[in-house]
Write a structure and sequence with these properties.
mainly alpha; 2 domains; transmembrane helix; 70% helix
């Protein structure tokens, strides 16, 4: 218990150790958002109770739980992958159970879960239809989503020992969890307290499965480096293949995007309706946002030696733009092929909009990525899934906001007029930053090279 309390205090203090005012403002914005969404969902429940909507009370409660379930899992992968917090080193003399318990509790001590808890409390206070039973069930949904995210992180970051007894135990307990969920899904609104007992039993089985899964995957993935010596390969191919971190981050982003698009395609094949039409935010994955938010919003953090070579050889704007395009060309090609295969096979009704949106997003996000790489550089340190930011959170949020503007023509075709304005703004920002590049280059060198000294 002392270890948990100490870790929780250290985690809370770390949030406000640097940029205290900025983080307090962000937390305040999160609490205001929790209040707004609490009022919105309470209003939906009220309308459903009066029969003014097509949705019933149970459906609104179900969508509320699904909303929290989806946002918790997605936040770990988008706009960038967030690695699992390994707070206690493996060599530290602590038992596996105590380490697991401490990390699980400390992970829940975060501003995100604090804001989410406030959202549920606001909803509970504003709506009499959201009872204490529903509140407790929502907390179980949050814990289930968090354990799901942890399990996915373990599979990604560690080497699994498939024949280990702990892995078989994890499979058995996960099977028990799935069996209970098939009979009584946790996101369905509970009508009696006995259902809550079943959900608690299912969550207990899932937590036990996650514990055994971590024991079966105690070793981190081995690092390997592959180099291409073929002179026939283009520079773009070499920049993609020879940089392990950039390549694997991009491939992981492509896999995540393919999963989202594949889920939408499966829903369309079965029901004839697109998930993208029901959940508009999924449209973000149709564009090339993952390419930029995963790597190219910090292109010189990944390709720092390339930046230094250009800086010391010529240092001209033309050369910087050219090498950036060379590094970006192959990932964009892969992303575009993935997107247009999906559009041609499953969503060809919006092919014109997709072409316009995709082309415009490249013209917006490419200049923004260069601006972010110069103005807000980040040192790419540690392993591929180390607990460190690999791109600026601020510019990732800006990229998501600008991409959101490109979907306005779905409301009305006249809103295509937004495109030239946003593209012009991105190019203007790029020109302004490149003019000040002689001042920024010292910060780039200090961030990417002197940080190791």
């Amino acid at each position: 218990m002392d270890l948990i309390l100490f870790s929780c205090r250290a985690r809370i203090n770390s949030f406000f150790r640097q940029k205290r005012l900025q983080r307090l403002l962000l937390l305040s914005v999160g609490l205001v958002s929790a209040g707004v969404y609490g009022w919105l969902f309470s209003f939906l429940l009220e309308q459903a109770g009066e029969g003014n909507t097509k949705l019933g009370i149970d459906q609104v409660l179900e969508y509320t739980n699904l909303f929290m379930l989806a946002i918790i899992i997605l936040k770990g992968f988008f706009p960038a992958y967030i690695p699992k917090a390994n707070l206690i080193p493996q060599l530290y003399p602590v038992s596996a159970l105590e380490r697991f318990r401490a990390e699980l509790v400390v992970e829940l001590v975060s501003p995100f879960y604090f804001v989410l808890l406030n959202f549920m409390l606001f909803l509970y206070m504003m709506s009499p239809l959201y009872t204490l039973l529903h509140l407790l069930q929502s907390i179980l949904v949050i814990l289930t989503a968090h354990i799901t995210l942890r399990s996915l992180q373990v599979f990604i970051e560690r080497r699994m020992r498939w024949r280990n007894t702990n892995f078989y135990s994890a499979v058995v307990m996960a099977g028990a969890f799935i069996a209970l969920q098939v009979r009584m899904p946790m996101f369905y609104p509970a009508s009696e307290w006995l259902m809550l007992v079943v959900h608690i039993a299912a969550l207990g089985a899932f937590i036990t499965s996650n514990f055994f899964l971590e024991k079966a995957a105690a070793e981190p993935r081995r690092k390997t480096v592959n180099y291409s010596s073929s002179a026939r390969r283009s520079l773009g191919w070499r920049l993609f293949k020879n940089h392990k971190q950039a390549r694997q981050m991009l491939l992981f982003g492509f896999a995540f995007k393919a999963f989202i698009l594949g889920t939408d395609a499966l829903a369309f094949a079965k029901k004839g309706e697109h998930l993208l039409d029901e959940v508009a935010t999924l449209w973000l994955f149709v564009g090339p946002l993952v390419v930029f938010s995963y790597v190219f919003n910090n292109v010189w953090g990944f390709y720092r030696n390339l930046w230094l070579t250009v800086e010391r050889s010529s240092g001209t704007v033309k050369d910087f733009l050219w090498v950036t395009w060379m590094a970006l060309r192959l990932p964009l090609l892969i992303d575009a092929v993935l997107t247009f295969i999906y559009v041609a096979a499953f969503n060809h009704e919006v092919v014109f909009f997709t072409i316009m949106m995709y082309t415009s997003s490249v013209l917006i996000l490419a200049p923004l990525s260069i601006v972010a790489s110069i103005v807000s550089p980040k040192t790419v340190s540690g392993g591929l899934f180390s607990f460190s930011a690999k791109a600026s959170y601020l510019f990732n949020i800006i990229a998501v906001g600008l991409m959101g503007l490109l979907f306005l023509p779905l409301i009305h075709p006249l809103l295509y007029l937004v495109y030239p304005v946003v593209i012009g703004g991105a190019i203007f920002a790029l020109v302004a930053v490149l003019k000040e590049y002689p001042k920024y280059k010292y910060k780039l060198f200090e961030t990417h090279f002197k940080a190791e000294a």
